[in-house]
Amino acid sequence: MEGSVTDLAMYRLNRAAEDLETAEENLKAGKYRASVNRSYYAVFHALRAVTVLDQFDSGKHSGIIAYFNQHYVKTGIFDREISKLVDSSYRLREKADYDDFYLVSGEEAQLQIEKARAVVAEVRKYLTAMINKESGGHKDAQPHADH
Fold it and tell me: What percent of the chain has pLDDT over 70?
C-alpha cells in the first residue's frame, strides 16, 4: 500500500531525525568519521523530504542539492544560509568518506551535527506549514519526528 506524498515527506524527515540521533551517538563514542557521515545523511534526507513535495528525486546527491537550491533557495522559500550549510556538510562528508588520510576531528563532527540540526529544524518548520496549509490550518496535522 502506498502512502501520500506528505507521508513520504514525513518518512524522510523521520529518517533525517534518526540519522541525526545516530550522528550524536557516534560523536559521543569518538567515531567522528561515522558521525560526519550520519549528520550529512540527516541533511540529505531532510532535503529529500522537501523535494518529494514536487515529486522530484534523483539518484545523485548533487541532483537533490541542485534542485533544492534552484527551487527552494533561489526562490526565497529557504534562506541562503541553508544552502551554505548543505554545501559544507556535503563537502566534509565527501572528505571523510573518500579521502584516505583525512582525519575528522571531534570539533568538525560537532559542527556537522549543529549544521544538520539547523537544516532539519528548518525543513520541519517548512513541512509543518505546508501540511497545515493543506489541511486548512488544523493544528493536529503537524508533522512530528521522533527527535
Answer: 90
Q: Long-range contact list for 91-95, CB < 8 A, 24+ apart?
A: 92/36, 92/40, 93/36, 93/37, 93/39, 93/40, 93/41
pLDDT tens-digit series, residues 58-93:
989 999 999 999 999 999 999 999 999 999 999 999
Low-confidence ranges of the chain (pLDDT < 70): 1-2, 137-147
Q: Contact, 10 vs 49, CB < 8 A?
A: yes
Q: Give the whole-angstrom CA distance, residue 39 versus residue 50.
A: 17
The overall longest dimension of the chain from CA atoms, in Å, is 53
- pLDDT at residue 81, rounded to an integer: 97
Cα distances from 7 to residues 10, 12, 21, 26, 107, in angstroms, run 5, 9, 21, 28, 35
pTM, whole model, 2 decimals? 0.89
Residue 133 has phi, psi (to 5 degrees) of: -65, -45
Does 1.25.40.10 match the CATH number of domain 5-137?
A: no
Q: Where are the domains of the chain?
A: 5-137
